[in-house]
Amino acid sequence: MSDIPQELKYTKSHEWVRVEEDGTLTVGITEHAQGLLGDMVFVELPEVGESYEAEQDCAVVESVKAASDIYCPVEGEVIEVNEELEDAPEQINVNAYHEGWIFRINPSNPDDVDNLMNADDYAALVEAEEH
Amino acid sequence: MPYIPHTSQEIAEMLSVIGVDSIEQLFDEIPPELRSDGLDNIPSRQSEMQVQRLLTEKSMQDGTPLCFAGGGAYEHHIPAAIWEIATRGEFYSAYTPYQAEASQGTLQVIYEFQTMIASLTGMDVSNASLYDGASALGEAVLMSVRANRKAKSKRIIMPATVSSVYRQVVATIVKHQGITLDIIDFDRANGTIDIDKLKQQSEPFAALVIPQPNYFGCMEDVHTLTDWAHEQGAMVIGLVNPVALALLEAPGNWGTQGVDIAVGEAQPLGIPLSSGGPYIGFMACKQKLVRQLPGRIVGRTVDLDGKPGFSLTLQAREQHIRRSKATSNICTNQGLMATATTLYLAFMGRDGLQKVAASCVQNTQALIDLLKISPGICFPFGTSVFHEFVITLPTDVEQVIEAMAEEDIVAGINISQYYAQDGLENALLICVTETRSPEDMAFFADTLNKVISDLTGGARK
Amino acid sequence: MTQLNETVIENRLIFEASDFTRKSSSLAPDIDVDMVTKSLPEHLLRKSELLLPQVGELQVVRHYTCLSQKNFSIDTHFYPLGSCTMKYNPRICNTLAQLPGFAGRHPMAHSSMSQGIMSCLYELQNMLMEATGMKQVSLTPMAGAQGEFTGVAMIRAYHDHNKDDARTEIIVPDAAHGTNPATAVMCGYKVKELPTNDQGDVDIDALKVMIGPQTAGIMLTNPSTLGVFERKIKQIADMIHEVGGLLYYDGANLNAILGKVKPGDMGFDVIHMNLHKTFSTPHGGGGPGAGPVGVSERLQPFLPVPMVALKDGQYYWLSEDELPLSIGHLSAWMGNAGILLRAYIYALLLGREGMQRVAEFATLNANYLLQRFADAGFEIAFPERRASHEFILTLRKEAKQYGTNAMDFAKRLLDYGFHAPTTYFPLLVPECFLIEPTETEAKTDLDSFVKAMELILEEARESPEVLKQAPYSLPVRRLDDVKAARELDLNYYQSHAE
Hints:
The complex is a heterotrimer. By secondary structure, chain A is α+β, with helices and mostly antiparallel strands. Helix content of chain A is about 20%, strand content about 30%. In chain A, the strands form two sheets. Chain A has a six-stranded antiparallel beta sheet. Chain A has a three-stranded antiparallel beta sheet with strand order 4-6-7. Chain C is about 40% helix and about 10% strand. Chain C has helices at about 5-10, 35, 55-70, 90-95, 100-105, 115-130, 145-160, 180-185, 205-210, 235-240, 265, 275-280, 335-375, 395-400, 405-415, 445-460, 465-470, 480-485, 490-495; strands at about 135-140, 170-175, 190-195, 215-220, 245-250, 270-275, 295, 305-310, 315-320, 380, 390-395, 420-425, 430-435. In chain C, the strands form three sheets. Chain C has a seven-stranded mixed beta sheet, with helices on both faces. In chain C, strands 10-11-13-12 form a four-stranded antiparallel beta sheet, with helices on one face. In chain C, strands 8-9 form a two-stranded antiparallel ribbon. In chain C, helix 4 runs antiparallel to helix 13 (about 335-375), helix 6 runs parallel beside helix 13 and helix 13 packs across helix 16. The radius of gyration of chain C is 26 Å and the shape is globular. Chains B and C meet through helix 1, helix 2, helix 3, helix 4 and helix 5 of B and helix 2, helix 3, helix 4, helix 5 and helix 6 of C.
């Protein structure tokens, strides 16, 4: 069973979301997702200042054998992206929840985050997918 | 049976292993009402000897005319060793190099091809090639719109000095992507892009296409055009002839920044004319655009023992992985043609290619000088040319082409079929490469004079 | 004494053999380049360095001849690559296509000077019409993928012409080639993915729910990419036609049915053929291909130009003047004419008798191999079904028990002198091998292939590590794909600039 931190929120499409103190949301892909994709070779980051709807594709992570869209967990505007991933995409493999973060958004509606899954629900989802 | 090695005993053994009585039984899942064995309109089989005779006759029935046509397909000398090597079974009958360890020959050739194309065009990276020059331009247009999202425009400025056939192919390819292709007129005196009309453009656009040399054989002022387009926030697609690049500035160095994407037709580099194909499109770009580059790309890496080797890379962009989100639906390159092109550039080298290009320029000038003294022939454009030029005739161009054909000469291309509404009437596009001797050119000029004289009723006798 | 380092020569790039002080050979004309460039506009001349290698003629010949020897090919190895139809490429097709009268012909030569090649293309159009049961054929698409694009673009043109603009969806089975969805998107369509049932057939119930006035068409391969014939094809055709959609036939597997069933009789409106598969034109290390399209009557007006027509004994080019609704040009001229010529020669050599035997022996070889593999203890993906010209093994059992996946088997096969089958496609079957022997392989070679797989299976049981490290006997061992993608080295002069 892979690492699923309790304090984070999750999506069905395997993004994690951290609610920061200032209300912004940091987004990445889960340990489970990076394991499935394998060695990362490239990350296409969203543009800072762009707004996305919930579940709209806004970034792409690419491994040798797959390219996977990253979906915006809730509606909001991108305020920062992890530019270090451009040169070191493997940070997602090394530490998906910290150095491997992908982008940060300012949610249009702070309550939207409550609709995302908690760690237990996500663990159940991963469990179900593995069988 | 042609190419089927089975003996009747083997067939019997195989059927017995499968557990059926006949080959026919293997098709028992096909609903009987769909079955149709009739191939009545296909002729009965012929032996290799019969086919060789038939095809040899067909190949000779139209003679081997002297060719003065270009317009995107060029007759150059092809060193004999190229196709001897390219058609070795190991290149000719290999598949796309998915199993890298069993395809190092093809993969290294493509890596060398990419390097040579990048070098010729002055760009950072090249792909493994595309179908032909026209479709490569179509892919470049799609790529520029994908890559230049900042322009917030899907408009492409496409000069009328780009081959009309190329423009038609691009239109077919990009039709359903919401892209508009705006044609910019050419300057009537120079046969190059009308820069004044271009500068009147006020709406944003994603990219400008610049041909060099252009369809009329004329040289565009590529530096000014490139810088202007970049100032407008647009990308630049350079459409270039690879032989001309031996002498003319590489698109990677046009203006202050160079073009963003360079494409063209590599047929002049060792590929026979062969009625229009198979040819080979090339495409190179700046490093930062590499992930938008469609088609196959080969990279150099190392194996388990640390030994250098080659493999297909950046495959995640491609259709077999990315499916509906791929950069293009393209699955292959023109592998065999890329092999021949690589061989050509290796045999010629830097000096050889420069000499081929210089010889084209010299011969073209020689024919121009011969035709300048021909009565009734006009030169509409006053610009320098590489190895093609336009003349206008005092009589019907189509009739002249037909009459020249009677004398076993491909006189050139009737470009009035594309530009009549632009005032180019009875215009002929002529090409002279290094393959034409002084005698060929004299014969061409004499025959053309005679044909014109005959068609105009000998008025000048 | 200096040690002779053979590996350096063996792995040398042509650029490393170059010396810019070496003068060019007799291959180029003798001319004073500087004299000529003086006549050209100075500001447009090349100022940047032209880095092309300067190498002697023999050294170039040897370099590329040695490189060719690092390839597997049909001429040297059994190549059971599923869905690719790696059959023998008769040399005569190449020899004749290179005759000077064909190779030297300019595409813009007047049609009165091109009657020979035009007669070949015209006859090829007719033969392909007969072989597929379609009403008309256009030869211009330059590869299978471009043929697909052409086909779907014609479907789009047909609906647009009928002002039927509510049709926004193309249905594609989940087992389809990746080109299918990519093509549908290029034509501005949304892709609906159709599931497959456990027998390898399309899920008819799912299809029922999916279709309607929004359906532009469906793209099918038959036999499917799973190596089985879609038995309910007629029902599917009726369902799609009833809601006003059109059927697209992906001709990837035409070799399985040549002379047995015609796509036109199955109800397809448009098809593309891969001449580099069924008609044996060379794969050339990945192209050139040729992807002619055939259509039923209703799509005839939309075919791409040019095509060859015959009137009063003279062949002529059909253009937009005759076909104003044509989707247009796909290549500057007549597609890959020289490849079309090779296919024409192959068709003459086979004749109608030979063509009928193609599907028969391709199917015989596939079913024989399937049974031999089943007998050897390998798991067949669809054991209840008759194989078409190809079939699928799944190595999931071996992956689980020995930790050796399909890729490991594939790499080990290379050591035994066999090109690997297609791996990991279709994605629906785990750890799969898609195996297509083609009709031109002899029984003895099929037997050797089975033997090699048996030996590898034994190795997997006894010492799985052997498989995981394979291959050992090829010019290189397994390559580092991650490094290749992370540290892009695509251009020698860029990567080795000092």
